[in-house]
Structure formats: structure tokens, C-alpha cells
Records
---
Amino acid sequence: MFQTDQNNGNSEIACAKINLALHVRKRLANGYHDIETVFAFLDHGDLLSVEPHDEITLSITGPFAKGLSDKDNLVLDAARLLAGSAGTAAGASIFLEKRLPIASGIGGGSADAAAALRLLNRYWDAGLSLSELVELSAPLGADVPACVVNQTCTGKGIGQDLAPLDNGALAGYFVLLVNPLVPVSTASIFRDWDGFDQGALPAGSLLDILLSGRNDLQGPAERLAPAISDILSNLNETGALVSRMSGSGATCFALYETERQAEDAKKMVSAELPDSWTMIGGLK
């Protein structure tokens, strides 16, 4: 059973999502892929806030706002979907501070849409449970339900068959994210997957899965964006428990027991790859 976060007020973090492991099992006739993955979330990300308004509107600011539409946006789709489901005519002026790179494999628009659902469900007093929000969010995209949950979980099918997974020995760990600021196409990377099923997620604890798991999209992504290989090569020299690419890339992550270790690793990577974006967050 997933636990609802005890959030208050008129703001909500769209937490960065990472795939601690991502096993691609087969291609499906509908264009999606049958996957097995572990979603985990950081305590940092984009920030959404809301103020009263007669209509539903969106304003976008922040270092990665450029190129995003405030008219055709998944956040607006989520808001309208919730308003229709809740039968409310209320409006909302939504503000999105875009702190995470676009098309980077760490949630992006999915996390923003999910955060909008949680925020507006509270703001409008719509009264939907977390399970109901998860179900409502499914048409918005494969990753949106997991981002609504916003807790460590396994995802199967297209990623929407979710089950909670305890952080166990990884509770309190810190994560360093590194992105080369090279957008990559999820569709292209999935297309380049070799179609070979290398097996299911390993059984056991989150730590077992992390250590024995893999990301089947890492190879295709590295071929499309060689900068990913440079990042992983540098992260492998920082003493991380594990370093791996998240999702379809291009963001890579590394796990550390302490924040100091993560900060030291960030300095090392930034010195070698000064044009890369970095962020440190705690594992939720």
C-alpha cells in the first residue's frame, strides 16, 4: 500500500525520478515496450505553485523554461483531467519553475503533471485518494502514475503496474545526477534496443536489485549520445555504490552513503566535464 505524502500549502515539488534498474523484455504491438523497472525519487526537482484564477492557466519560469509551451503542456492536460473528474468549475493559475533539464530521463513533464495532480487535488479539495489519482493519471503517459506515487516502487507492463518497494539499506543515501545537456529521443533509443530479453529484475531487496540490475537502454543511448559514456566513466571513479543511466537518458546517477561523498563526487565530475548539469538530492 502506498502512503500519501503529508504535503501542505500551495506548492508541490515535482521530484526528479530515476530508474535504479530498467529491464526491457519485449516490444508490444501498440508501440510500447514491456518493461520491468524500479522507480525512485529524489527530494529535489521542479517546483509547482498555484494561486486563485477564474480559468486554468500556466506560467513557466526557471533555467530550463526555454522552449516549453504554456498553452500545450502536460501540466494543463493534468489539471483539466482532474477538473473534469472532480466536476469542479474552479480555475487555477499554475506556476512551474523548471529546474530540471528537458528530455533527460528523470521525469520531466511526467513529474510535473503528477505534481500538478497532487497539488490541485489538495487546492481544489477534490478529495481523490492517491490510488484514484494514480488511476486517473494513466492516460497522460507511461511514467505519470509512478510519478504520482512519488515513492520507490517497481513498475511492470509499460511501467504502470506498480508495487511499493522499501528503500531498506539505501534509506538516507544521496544521489548525484549528471546530464550532458544533450537532449535524447526516447523513441529513437527504444527503436535502437536490440530486442534481446536479458531477463527479469532480480529478486530480493532494493539493494539486491540495484547491484544486480541493469539499464537495457544504456547501450543504445550511449551510441546516440557518446557524452553519456564520458559521464559514466567519470562517475565510476568517484567511489559510488552504483552509477548508471536513468530511463532513456541522458541523465546518469550515482549513489553515495553521505552527502559529503556526493559533494566531493560532484566537484570531481564538474572539473572534468564543466559543461554538464549536476544536482544532488536525497533518496525519498
---
Amino acid sequence: MTTYLAMNRWIYPENNHKKQHPLLELEQTIKKYGLVVVDNITQMPFYGKPYNCNYVVYSLCHRGWVLAEYDSHEVEFRPHEICIIMPNHTITAHESSPDYLATLIVVCPETFNEMQRHSIYRHQASFKKLPAFPLADNQYASIVELFSLVRTVSRLNTTQKPVMLANLIDTLNTLLSIYRFPDDTDRIKEIPPGEQLFDRYYNLIVANHATTREVGFYAKQFNLTAKYFSTLIKRETGIAAGDWISNYIVIQAKTLLRNAPELNIQQIGLKLGFSDQAAFSRYFKTNTGQSPREYREKWI
């Protein structure tokens, strides 16, 4: 299996990855129906450049592997693992094995949010931090059956289909949470208030990170004090509220530094809401230990 070369450069595959990915081919179909099951996935959407998926994607790996970065963190996707990608996260695929095979459930955010209104439980925060986890053989078999049922219902022509799919996705979320957190069964009783808060907070960061980096701004959106808001976010996710902001900005900065050579460092800083290059450089170095220029030079 190919890993890093010198200077953190990857060998990108040149075999069967030239065909357009089904996620791109089926964009209009996904928007029209809200939920689509896609079989026989043998490649990633792009290799060597970031891809910000606008959908909620449940990806079940049957065989083979993928090496990638998720929000600038190295990840591997292996057989009998399931990966749940929420919108507004950056994936950079580097390599996949020739025998890679996966099935996807792709859900539009609007459809997913409507489904969540009827949900008894969800654990999105954990999947935002670490999207993939392995399944035991019996768990994998159960998820394959559930994927098959979602596929069957998604093809029905009935007014009951939205409710049926919402119930199935809720069952899928709950089952995956049980598999991933077997000692956390008490949380299945209801949607944790802190998690609902975090979901909205993350979406606000995506929308406002270039205009404000203050926790107090976000706390006001919930009519909470900054201190209490920070306590709730830290209790739910294990990560401080301010760190979620800085982490998101750094991820966007790294993506632009590596993949937008047409933009200089000052332009990247302005794009991310910094008044000048010096302010951006100080922020980036405080949060990464290196300057933007030093980081970019590693990828030239």
C-alpha cells in the first residue's frame, strides 16, 4: 500500500479514476428525490484536491480501502467500516485500492433536517469529529440489510415514502450509535439538548467564520452568555467552543494554501476575514505552530 512520499506528497492513482463520480452525475436526481442509494461505488469524487460535499453521506465499505484527509486529518477507510459525512466538511482523497467497493446513502441536507424533526436520537457531534468506525461481522450484516431496506423504500411510489424513509434513517442513526457507543445506551432515550445546540452552532460557524471569530457572537444567537454557551459545547463535544471556530478556520486556510496557488497569502487571509496578512499569519501560527508560508512550502 502506498503511503507518504518525501515532503508529504502522495502518489495519485491513474487507473480507473477518470470517470465522473456518481455523486456528481446524480446531483439533480439527489436534489429531486432528497435521498438516493448509490451502489457499486469504486472510486472517490476527486483525487489530490479537496471536495466539500453538500450532502449527508452514509458510506459502507464492502472491500478495499481509501486513504484520505478529513478536515486535514489523515484517515483510512477499510472493509466493513461505515463513514458518516455531514455537510461542510472537507475531504481530500489521495488513493484507493483497485478493489474498492462501497454503497452510499446520499441525503440532501433539507431532507435530512426534516427527517431529524421526527428523530428520537442522534449523535452527530461524534461523527463530525471522527466520521468512520469499524463494524463487527454481525453488525456489518445488519447494516447491509438496513441499507437494502432503505434502497427498496426509496424506489416506492407512495405518499408514505417520506415517513418510511425518515423512520429508517432514524433507525440507522440509532443502530450506528449503539454499535459505536455500546456503553452509552442512556443517551438513546432522547435527543440531547447539547447536541441540538452543537449542530446549530457548527452550521453558524460555517456561515459566519469569515466575519467573526468571537464565541460571544454565537452565544447571542442562542440567547446565552458566552461562558454558559462554552460550557455546554465543551460538555457535549469535549472541545471548547472557541476551538471549534479556530479549527474550522485553520482547515479552510490549509485547504486554500495547498490547493489555491493562484491566491497569495494576503488574499487567503482576506478571504477568511482577516484585516491584513500579518493578522492572518499570527492567527495561523498560533494555531498550527508554523507560518502560512512555511505550511505552503511543504506542499510545493
---
Amino acid sequence: MKQQFHYATVTEAIEQLRNQGFTLDLNLKENHITAGEQAFPAEEFEIVDLYRYEGASDPADEATVYALANPSGLKGILVAGYGISTDDDSTETLKQLHYKYLEGKKG
């Protein structure tokens, strides 16, 4: 699925994705996607859609909203910020998810 909409704010993107069934609040911990107490290998997930937001005056306001899904039907939202709070393993995991996403768009 390619990106069809650009929502004005992160909050609006999250609200609309929840309406589309992306109901889990996902987090990235090293090379795993977590939903509450459950952890899943990140490579099981694919980016269905993403929305990037850039802060006009403050780089700390930059974020990407990811709509993620896995083959077992889990669908959720991961919001990732930029900057010093991102660890190297998480950054590498996001790069791998992006690579899969871009490769899927070529096909």
C-alpha cells in the first residue's frame, strides 16, 4: 500500500490509522517490536504506511509515524523521534524496515 494521505499532525495521523485498524501501541526496543509486555522480532513486521513530520524550528519536533503489520494480523502504530534518544540497534532496525518497505514499493 502506498502513502495516499498526508495528515497535518502526528495526532491526526495516529487517529486515522487507528480508524483503519492499527490499534496496537508499538514500541521499538533494540531489534524487537513490543506491544505491552509482548515482544516480537522486528523482521516479522512490515511498514504498511509511514508519515514523516519535520519541526519547522526545532529538530526535536521531528518524528515518523509508522503503520506496521505482521503476517499473523497484528497491526499497530510506532512513533519514532529523531536525535540523541535513539540507540544504534533501534536505528539499524528501522533502517532494515525501511529497506523492506522501499523494496516492496518497487515490485
---
Amino acid sequence: MRNKKAQSAIAIVLFIVSFVIVIQIKSVMKNNGMDSTQLQRIEDLQKELIKEKDKNIDLNKQLLQANTNLETYRENARQNDTGSKAMAEELKNAMLLAGLTDVEGEGVTVVLKDSTERSGENSSANYVIHDRDLRDIVNELIGSGAEAISINGERISSKSAIRCVGPTITINNNYYAPPFTIKAIGDPDTLEAGLNIRDGVVDVMRAFKIDVTITKSNKLQIPRYNGTVTYKHAEEVKRTAAR
């Protein structure tokens, strides 16, 4: 009888041990599977990062060559006749409009920081800075006569894109997180008044406790647009001479 009880007890213990071992094996297999998936994801991200870096290197080379050629054209135009000098002045103005030159002048600096407060009545997303907030600020500055604008050192041009990518915002395909520093060259009083218009973009942001600081300045420096300006589909309209 005692032998039977001992055998039963041993059988139960062995069953429990076997059960625990199976569970552990399954757990290890699952974790290994998760690790494998995570490693694959990391490798994919690394490959994408390398591709983006290579692309940026190529674009920077193209930009450097284009700037070198452009400076050569400008120097040749300055040294030639009156007609060429007029063309050089038009080129200068066109470059200013396209944001391809460093500029300086009076204006305003706007610094934006995420809110440190939260309210249970509203979504937490309302208390952080989004791409639409930056676009609204830029549009308000342009509407108030800004002649040049930058965000975190990125010149805003007709080719600039501002959009959310996860917790960051891309500006000219570069990633940034708060705080954001926006510089705008123009009449300081007019720019400040445009931003502080009642119920405007700044009022809305401040309603959600987003920190907005506006400072007027007698001299600001804004760098040129560092991206490439190429057109694959848009072409100049060729006009025929009038008869």
C-alpha cells in the first residue's frame, strides 16, 4: 500500500515537473520568436536609415554643384555689360523669392513648447504641438507680410513640407521634436499683431496651455533652403510670337 502511495506521489510530482517544463519551453520559443521579429525590424530600420543617408549625400552633392554653377553664372553676369547686370539683378531677386540665399533683417522669433498641463476633459493630443500648428503659424506670418521664414533653422520655401511622423515633425524631410523656434523677417509690429489676432492660432494654442513666446528683433538671420529644387513634370509654357 505504501509503495502504491509513493508511486502515485512520484507520478504526480513528475506530471507537475513535466507540465512546468513544457510551459517554460513554450515561453522560451515565444520569446525567441519575439526577439527574432524585433531583430528583423531593427535590421529593416537600419537598412532604411542607410538608404536615407545615401540619398542625402547624393542630394547634398547635387546642391553643392548647383550652387557652384550658380555662383559662376552670377560672377560672369556681374563682369559683363549692362544687360547682363540687369539679368544678374533679376537672378538675385529670383533667388531671394525661392529662398536660395541667406538673408537677414528685422522680424520676430516665435518659440513653441508642448504644454506641461493636462485636462481630463480633452484629449492629451490637444496639449502637444502638431504639424498643423506649425503650418498655421507659417500661414499667419506669410499673411502678415513675412519675407523669409525658418523653423529650427530649416528655411521654408515652396518646396517645404511640414508633417507629423510619429512623435516627431519632419521639416524639409528632417526630423524635429519640440521645442520649435520659428523666425520670420518682416515688419516686427505687423508680424506680432498678426500672430496675436483675437481667436487666432496663438490664442487657440494658449488655450491648451501650449507655451508660445513671441519676441521682436531688430536683426535676425535666416539660412537659405538646403534642399534640392528640381522639376520632373512642370515645364515652362512656351509662348509663340504674336503675328
